[in-house]
Give the backbone structure.
Amino acid sequence: MIEKYLNKIHNGDCLELFKNIPDNSVDLTFADPPFNLKKNYTSYNDSLDFQAYLDWCEKWISEMVRVTKPSGSIFLHNIPKWLTFYASYLNRFAYFKHWIAWDAPTAPMGKTLQPAHYGILFYTKEPKGTKIYELRHPHKRDRNGYLLKDYGGKKDGLHPFGPLVSDVWTDIHRIKHNKKRDPHPCQLPIHLMDRLILMATDENDIILDPFSGTGTTAISAKRLGRRYIGFELDKKYVEISQQKLERTASNFKIGESWVSFYLNEIVTIRDKDWNNLSKYFSIPNPLRNIDFEKVKLIDKKLIPKEPYIESDALENKSDITEKSSKINEKKIIEIESPTLSQEHLQVIQSTKKSKPSKEFASSNAQTEIYAEKK
């Protein structure tokens, strides 16, 4: 029954779509729901009453637990406020493993501690027998290339690639560059999803995301050789996801090992894969030189190219025409391109100093607007 839902993003209410998924059929469920913070979604009211929001959350959380296999994992992403309520509910049906904090500093909010992280609750369906793999990330270095942490005389005992991943992720940050954002108010870094998928699944396992957005989870799953099921209420986001998935290949692999790439670097590997991966790297010799010398991938051609529809379209200069106008005393340059898809409209605003401002989405097709103060 589940086969006809695999490797697709399904348009509709997740509570209705969950009814089509059998019990104990999914290896990993991940949810990044609306935060009830009045975000500008086009198909969802992100401003429910306190109890109404929690009642709604309990319904889809219970469905996530139901469809997850006994050997599977459950991940819930949100701000700490809501995660405390999620945890109290999940504790009745599943088993707590970790609260993962990832770096996401925000602006000061008055007389309180400055929020600086999002949380990911990690639960398992059963207390034992769950797939969980240790991960490694590259050593952190200063701007001169030296290790940030002083290991003293223990450098010869360091792992060449890097330390084990902990439950605090300071090496993954929110998407800040407009060109890498979709027209969605809450888009997660895709290499964050890579890390979760590498940690708790194997090749060909099934990952389900009931709030698929513009397809981040599905794209991560596909490029790591997993199968996916996505639910999304907004038809526009479904169309964006489908376009991106068509351009995604299952190629985040070195030899026989799946890995996560970001900015042309490998950023997450499984610890158990290092013996197979090490032959593809140049490793400092003696190993103590790791203090100032990184391990490097010998053949850079092994790094897959990540497709970006926006940048590809803009590179075709012959397809682009410009029109000038004024809106609210700002100079507007409309760039029209037949190669730009409707769903990838972006609006970027800059001052004379060329500082990018927040990106927002519009429903007009095949136009990018760059607004500049006169």
